[in-house]
Amino acid sequence: MLGTSGAIFGPWIESHSPRMCALLGAVVFFAGHCTAALGLACREIGMLYFGYGFIGGVGLGIGYVTTIDAVIKWYPSSRGFASGLAVSGFGAGSVAFSNLNAALLRVFTVPQAFAILGTINLVVMLGCSQLMRPPHPDYNIPGVAMDMVDQSLTEINYPQQRTIQQTIKGKSANIGGQTITVGSDSGDPVLIITLSQAISSVDFWLLWLAFFVNLVFGVVLISNLASMTTNMFGMDTPTSVTTVVTIEGLFNASGRLFSGWISDSF
Fold it and tell me: Where are the transmembrane segments (predicted)?
């Protein structure tokens, strides 16, 4: 549901205020926690799956895409580092919540812990959403910082080898007060393509496949790390398991940040 909701709501997120989208994501994510807590209290596994898996997944997808979409618009020249910094919250969050979860379960029942975690997420996400806003329309054009616009497009060393480029060569668009034309053989910093052209390209589906494989197995690993630690290494004490999850979270966060930063160099 994370990926599906991100794709479905993507166009809507692009055309609406990031603050509004973040608020929606926070409320839906909270609703998923509450439904899961109710399902656990009633011992209804279907309600747990629907609440935390379906509803919570939709809220997660909206919040995820909203954050990335807003961040890369503010830092068009360092999109890899900016997006890496944003998604490193996934890893950093596991560091904080692995310890918080253990503390909650020592005092509260599992349904109560779900409700408390949902409330904590809601408060934090609502607070953060108030700081989210898009840059001024003339701040940048897609993929290019405004300080690059005055340069000749042929002077910008930004080679892009895309098979779809030939089908859009010569097309122009007025973006941010600038007329941009896709014309050079080596590739311009802006590719003006339609959704149908993007989806019909081989590059898109290879990129999508890479995301799909990475996300599915990454989330499976993260969500089962505690039980894997217990089963594989016999660490059945809460302190040992929490330590392993915390260490993984630190590397998870730093890996997202480092790989994003490196991608800007390439």
Answer: 22-42, 49-75, 81-101, 113-132, 205-226
DSSP 234: -
Tokens of 4: 């599906």
Identify the CA nearest to 47 among candidates 108, 97, 116, 114: 114
Q: Are 52 and 35 in contact (CB under 8 A)?
A: yes
Average pLDDT estimate for 127-131: 91
Contact between residue 35 and residue 15 where contact means Cβ atoms under 8 Å apart: no
Cβ contacts of 204 within 8 Å, gap of 6 or more: 198
| Cβ–Cβ < 8 Å for 239, 57 | no
Residue 184 has phi, psi (to 5 degrees) of -75, 150
DSSP state of 189: S
pTM of the model as a whole: 0.72
pLDDT single digits (tens) 188-235: 445 556 778 778 888 889 988 998 888 788 878 877 887 888 888 776
Q: How far, in Å, CA of 5 to CA of 54, rounded?
A: 10
